[in-house]
Task: structure prediction
Amino acid sequence: MKPTLLILLAAVVMSTSTLAQPDRRKSLDQAVSEARERYDGRVLSAETDRRGDRESYNIRILTKDGRVKRLRVDPDSGRDERRPQR
Result:
C-alpha cells in the first residue's frame, strides 16, 4: 500500500473512534445536584433503587416552604419519572 493511503486509513480509523458517544448516564451525585438547584432546598435522602434490570434514583428534598419533594430520576434520561409526560 502507498504511504498516503495508509495515513488516510489511519486518520479515518482514529476519527471514527472519537465519534463514539460518551456515557451520558447521570450519576447519583449529578442527579442530586440538579434536583437541589431545581427545587432550591435541602436534600433529605438520595438512593439508587434497582428493580430487575432497571435502575432509578430516589431523591427527597425539603423545599424552602417546608414541603418534601419526592423525585424518581431515570439515570439514562435524567427525567423525573413521577412527572407526567407531555
In short: The first helix runs from residue 3 to 18. Residues 24-49 form one domain. Strands lie at 41-51, 54-63, 68-73. The chain has a mean pLDDT of 82.
